[in-house]
Protein ENHANCED DISEASE RESISTANCE 2-like (Musa acuminata subsp. malaccensis), 713 residues
Amino acid sequence: MTKVVYEGWMVRYGRRKIGKSFIHMRYFVLETRLLAYYKKQPTDNMVPLQSLVIDGNCRVEDRGLKTQQGHMVYVLCVYNKKEKNQRMMMAAYNIQDALNWKEKIEFVIDQQHGLATDNGNSTFVSRDLGMDIERNVSSSSHGRNPEDEEENNPNLPWRTTTGNGPPDSVLDWTRDQLSPRKHWRLVRCQNGLRIFEELPRADHLPRGYSKAMKAVGVVDATCAAIFELIMSMDGTRFEWDCSFQHGDLVEEVDGHTAVLYQRLQLEWCSRIVWPRDLCYVRYWRHNDDGSYVVLFQSREHSNCGPQPGFVRAHMESGGFKISPLKPRNRGPRTQVQHLMQIDLRGWFVGYFPSFQQHCLLHMLSSVAGIRELFSQTDEVHTAPRIPIMVSMTSDSVSSEKEQKTQEISIQPGVSLDQVFTDNTHPLILDEDSDDEEDTHILDAEEEMELGSYCHVFQKNIEEMDVDTSDSFDTSCFSGNLRWDDDENSRDCWRLPDGNNFKVRSENFFKDKSKIPAGKYVMELVAVDWLKNATRMDNVARRSGCAAQVASEKGLFSFVINLQIPGSTHYSLVFYYVKKQLEPGSLLQRFVDGDDEFRNSRFKLIPSVTKGSWIVRQSVGSTACLLGKAVDCTYVRGEKYLEIDVDIGSSAVANGVLGLVFGVLTSLVVDMAFLIQAVSPDELPERLIGAVRIAHAELSSAVVADLGDDPLEE
């Protein structure tokens, strides 16, 4: 019998052909090569409602938070990268449950990838299954469940871009970000919190805006519990946020982005000062180190105009960073940072500056409220959950539906396994239940536009931080994004110092130590900044590009194509060149390896050297395996390898992209690329190359001429 890796009750999430979504409580079972779910806890020889074979080609992606039947559910999508019509959607009311399942499924995928590698990559794991799995898969296929008709129909289109990013109404929601500031100054300690004020450059601070301030405190709770508490906008928020009066959901953009309306409870001369409200975008992400980032910024919305009796405040930037700390006394500890920069507006602010300062400290004190709530209430530790917000634009629901919503509420302190031991519990919705018709979730469609700009720029490469033993003449290479080594130059690229990046040392597997990366393995000879009406694949085939020039000279090119989706598609293309690959080297094995090997090794180290606090926290500086985070397509030419990185294939990456794209001209971003070492003989790691993009302009992108037919691989 196949070993069970993980099992338990989860939410089955899906959508029918007509666009209506549904949820059912199902019992999920994860085995070493199979993920399946049942209507009840399975017994011997029970046929699952649906099965999905787990092999090295599978991937787990979080779809974020979705509003469904009176609750917020955290959605996961498990699918096969080579057969994307084979997928399974599952969700949880508790984010920690979803993360546990994600971790277990990724563990099984990694195991199957290891088996495929040991077998020489000649046979897919899914073709070499045991008899038990074959029987289960075939049985579930014959008795296909009608609730999966939309997901198993191969004729239905598969949306490769899982996150659409913010809609047109909030596309540029960070375009008014402040220029970067350098230092924080401690201004006071209050309620057990350290209150900091950021010291900006005076000529960069807009008039009428308060200085950014943040509160830092430690809470004895898990990051997930604090995150779910912060995401709440119902009556539970009154228990820890003294500045909160009322909150509504204006628009759910995607699983990580929403537009919210909030009324503030400021309590400062309320008889003569009008109350304030906010309409803002909230974006969140979960990092690999267990931390959470929740970002806010004001944005106008057609469904959230000025409200009678309120002054609309403007939140320039704000948010929470929730980071795990080492436990003490066997209990969890978390650092919570709450940043806020807000203009309360109105005539009163100009005459009484203390009003702005008082209200800002009033809002930052919510960190102390969170700390005290967890220290005094046991229930918050055991059953945090994310309640739903009432939409401002939705019609009022009937009393019958309100009663149904109340019936399916999960009581605090009760685990899912306890709730669903009895199969007659109201939350277990039968396939024939009418409740699945209550909620609609509609997909937003993106319109394609063709730009009309066409510019060609000539670059001049001078000193480079590369290994000179493999040097060659670079004057023959050119790209449309110019090179400029001046730190104050804009709309250009240059090379960062390789020592700015830390890579695994020779003793990494003994002491986890890292060292400065030093010299690059390959030379960056050109950068192209392209745009088109459709996604641009295999750009190295273009006649006259740096890869083709290198091929004519007998040089090898490593091309990285960062594909940025949108109404107009952009591509940022880096051309790294080397005389020849060293036989047997890690780089040569990567270039000539299969896609599974490449996906498990190709790593990016990002860094925002100039940018606002929101962008720096959102992008982070942690190394990321791109092949596991987003879809990567590898094109092996005669003298080049191109990696097409589809940033839009990840909801999280696409959300970060929406944040960064709005303030692209104010950013300086470093990116380093390398192949991850997984054994001592591959250490120390070395960077393939790096690049610094400074204040890029969308208008400088050139329309790509891709020709009629791509070259044969």
Summary: The longest strand covers residues 314-328. Residues 517 and 547 are 25 Å apart (CA to CA). Confidence is low (pLDDT under 50) at residues 121-182, 381-390, 393-468, 709-713. The first helix runs from residue 95 to 118.
